[in-house]
Amino acid sequence: MTDTPDELVRLDVDAGVATLTLDSPHNRNALSAQLRRELIAHLDTAIADPGVRVLVLTHTGPVFCAGMDLKESRGAGAGQQGVHEVPRILTTLWDSPKPVVARIAGPARAGGVGLVAACDVAVAAERATFAFSEVRIGVIPAVISVVVLPRLSARAAHELFLTGETFDARRAAEIGLVNTAVADDGLDAEVERYTGMLRLGAPGALAAAKEMLRRDRPATMAADFAEMNVLSATHFASEEGQEGIRAFAEKRTPSWVPGDD
């Protein structure tokens, strides 16, 4: 455990799972300057820790994240708030070689929705709601659009970015913003189900699969197959690949699964 009483983000590591908790309920876990700095620091620590296999992003209080701290956004230069830190947070979540699961037990707004979109897997309680509320206060969801737009259909993006309408967790799942919406009392079990599955994957293979999912596809199918043949052969011949094949043949658990030597 690496937290102090004054921290707004807590980091806990247990059995290969690093849980990053937004702990600023007094302002609805808004992305204040302090919270942004601490979130970046804890993300870097968790990703660098060889004992961490999966990250979970969660929160205390009734709200997941209300977006930027509007009290810090007033006055001259307000448009520069988090100009480097927010892209860094979203990029770190998106590019993390370790899978990241978002646990959403309450409302997410604006930048908070960006955090959700940047994670690999997102599980929301049915009580959670979402909104791209920026246009209703005279701004636009510019920065978060980089990670949000790849998740949504064009129709849904136009509708929700332009109206600012609040939508529920089931709609969020239908349009691809979250993976699943579950009963409020089933949230933790569903998050644990995902983290349990992700911990079974080989670390190098998980990182490579994430990179493959993010890559730009070549112009032709032939070029795509050529690249993928090389990538496939590389991983079959890798130490992880050979260990996985041996473990399958020997009907045992691969060495990378937590709890096994």
UniProtKB/TrEMBL annotation:
InterPro entries assigned to the protein according to its UniProt record, in alphabetical order: ClpP/crotonase-like_dom_sf, Enoyl-CoA_hydra/iso, Enoyl-CoA_hydra_C, Enoyl-CoA_Hydratase/Isomerase
Superkingdom of origin: Bacteria
Protein name: Enoyl-CoA hydratase-related protein
SUPFAM superfamilies reported for this sequence: ClpP/crotonase (SSF52096)
Similarity section: Belongs to the enoyl-CoA hydratase/isomerase family.
Organism encoding this protein: Pseudonocardia nematodicida
